[in-house]
Amino acid sequence: MTSSTLTRTEDFKYILSQIEDGIGTITLNRPDRLNSIKDSLAHEVERALDLLEKDQEVKVVIIKGAGEHFSAGVDLKEAFNYPSPIGEQPSEVWRAHLESLLRVSIKLWSLKKLTIAAVSGHALGGAADWVLSTDLAIASNEAKFGEPEIRFGAAPPTLMMPWVVGIRKAKELLLTGDILDAYEAKEAGIFNKVVEKEQLETEVTGLARRISKLPSSAVKLTKRSVNKTYEIQGLRDALDYNVEVAISMFFLNTETEIEGIGSLIKNEGLKGFLDEVSKQVDN
């Protein structure tokens, strides 16, 4: 067995990170919470991406979720219970939260290795932004994708959507909060391919292996060239601006609206929140 086929792992609390045969894999590992994103999980993903980027053996990075779902998005129970350190304004605490999500999106976007999202189950909110920030995305036929924040008076954490699907579709999805099934998301340009749930891991790994055999410098420079086209158009400035908008929208919500969402999460849990989102979509 050569060194390139050995599996190496890193120790994290909320994610799994490993390298095998030149492919780095990050797994969001909170299946009991539908892999919802805590700030500490986002920090771990950012750290894992840094390590994989520096590892010369790694050619491709896959990001996925443990269990049945990629991620249901931001851990709203944590989000609605942020403590404000003494002397620090709540807006700055919320800013730090949004910026932690944005840093992961930017890291996936700009990583010097190709990134692939393997999406099963829910990919919502902040997690949807992470999927949009990868270079390629393959989904199972049971995947659900969307950014329903507007239904609760909030804004997408990153706003990668317009850069991937175009202005008309972005407005439709972000102004309605609609959730797409896997095939609708593929038609919108969000997923490159949809496969049966049982074939997802095989399909993603196969794609990663094909790309890992290509000249790494050519892959890196091609990715950089494509990305630069969008950055010249103002992608990074637009993402920074959206942080300010998201902060404004959060604090413009009425106290009743915020308490209502917080109460729903506290009493019904994340599943109850997602059920409520589904009801609103159906209506």
Automatic annotation (TrEMBL):
One Pfam entry name: ECH_1
Q: Which InterPro entries match?
A: ClpP/crotonase-like_dom_sf, Enoyl-CoA_hyd/isom_CS, Enoyl-CoA_hydra/iso
Which SUPFAM superfamilies is this protein grouped with?
Answer: ClpP/crotonase
Coiled-coil stretches:
none
| Highest taxon above the source species | Bacteria
Q: Per the similarity annotation, which family is this?
A: Belongs to the enoyl-CoA hydratase/isomerase family.
State what protein this is by name.
Enoyl-CoA hydratase/isomerase family protein
Question: Which organism's genome codes for this protein?
Answer: Pseudalkalibacillus berkeleyi
The organism's taxonomic lineage, starting at the top: Bacteria, Bacillati, Bacillota, Bacilli, Bacillales
